[in-house]
Design goal:
By secondary structure, the chain is of the alpha/beta class. Helices cover 28% and strands 23% of the residues. The chain is built from 7 helices and 9 strands. It has a 7-stranded mixed beta sheet. The longest helix is centred in the last third of the chain and has 21 residues. It comes from Lacticaseibacillus paracasei. This is Peptidase M28 domain-containing protein.
Length: 268
């Protein structure tokens, strides 16, 4: 994890009060404070995926929530922040679930030839390892839902050939949602209608060989899926101001995903 990502975990305004002691002693609240976290890159290191298990009342049925942890910029790799936020809410409010929850933080998204199995997304290896672990623990888990989270809070840009750069349109970039069953599609639509969320949303019907993102291996392995994935033009560019997410949109989308998780736990 690159050093700048540590600061991203502190993205919700309710947490900012914890840092009041480092603000300048001044009546001018408009002053800008820069926090620099130092670090260094290492090459040829082993990367690992990991999972967080939240036991449910039904130990034989699971909802898998996954994302990838690596990427070249803030939008590309901010799914992990959403999952950490959901886990924080579960722990803080001591929430209980019917289904067992497995949160998968998958490494190797940009190293598919090394991390994926037979050219598939990196989650394919994570699923294989998870299955091996469950077998070793004599667990037989029924697949209730695979919920994938990637690329939240994107803003819309157009590619200007005249100026040779991306230009903001002052709109939110569409967040695409794959829903593999009618029940999942209805669940997403109901959650959208009952939630005050910013942004634009388009629901897609998945295909095994035309499924963008880390939700694809879940669908290929027979999971009912709901996969959130933005596709902004700057998605794979190196970090710059145009790859920074809109925090309010990102927070709204995280709330939506959390509500879908809670609703799916009651439904499936």
């Amino acid at each position: 994890m690159r050093s700048r990502n540590i600061a991203w975990i502190i993205w919700h305004d309710k947490l900012l009060s914890r840092f009041s002691t480092i603000l300048p002693d001044s009546a001018d609240t408009r002053q800008v404070l820069r926090l620099t976290l130092t670090g260094q890159y290492e090459t040829n290191v082993i990367t690992k995926s990991f999972a967080v298990l939240v036991p449910g009342e039904n130990r034989g049925k699971q909802i898998l929530i996954n994302t990838h942890t690596d990427g070249p910029n803030d939008i590309e790799e901010n799914g992990a922040i959403a999952l950490l936020t959901v886990l924080h809410a579960i722990k803080h409010d001591n929430l209980k679930f019917k289904n067992t929850l497995v949160f998968g933080f998958v490494s190797g998204h940009f190293q598919i030839p090394q991390s994926g199995i037979e050219g598939r997304q990196a989650t394919s290896r994570f699923l294989r390892d998870l299955s091996m672990y469950e077998t070793s623990q004599h667990l037989e888990m029924k697949k209730a839902l695979g919920l994938t989270v990637e690329h939240l809070g994107g803003l819309d840009y157009v590619d200007s050939q005249k100026e040779n750069k991306l230009i903001a349109t002052e709109l939110y970039d569409p967040l695409y949602v794959y829903a593999s069953t009618k029940e999942n599609r209805d669940l997403v639509l109901k959650s959208l209608s009952g939630t005050n969320v910013s942004g634009r949303y388009q629901i897609l019907k998945p295909r095994k060989n035309a499924y963008f993102g880390e939700g694809q291996p879940l669908y290929q392995d027979g999971w009912p899926t709901i996969s959130f994935i933005g596709m902004p033009l700057a998605l794979c560019q190196m970090a710059s101001p145009i790859t920074e997410p809109d925090i309010q949109s990102m927070f709204d989308q995280t709330k939506l995903i959390f509500q879908i998780l809670v609703a799916s736990d009651h439904q499936f």
